[in-house]
Specification:
Blueprint: E1 2-3, E2 12-18, H1 26-31, E3 39-44, E4 49-53, E5 56-60, H2 62-66, E6 68-72
Antiparallel strand pairs: 1-6, 2-3, 2-6, 3-4, 4-5
């Protein structure tokens, strides 16, 4: 398990858990498809993290990406 913020661009991973600090944002992230069990692709890291979940792409700041724990998938 690792943080989304340390994955290289182009990596795919499954969300394992969201840190308790994201509790207030969890509903918003879930509405975008990002919740434990979902598979995500990290498209870019700079100037902001861009994540793809299914057909949805959205940006995350570094602090949020640091609080999302994932397991890499092949």
């Amino acid at each position: 398990m690792t943080r989304l913020s340390v994955l290289p661009a182009g990596a795919r991973a499954r969300v394992v858990l969201l840190a308790p600090e994201l509790r207030e944002r969890a509903d918003r992230l879930a509405s975008l498809g990002l919740s434990p069990g979902s598979e995500v692709g990290l498209l870019q890291r700079r100037p902001t993290f861009v994540v793809e979940v299914g057909e949805t792409r959205f940006a995350l700041d570094q602090e949020v990406a640091r609080q999302i724990f994932v397991q890499r998938v092949a």
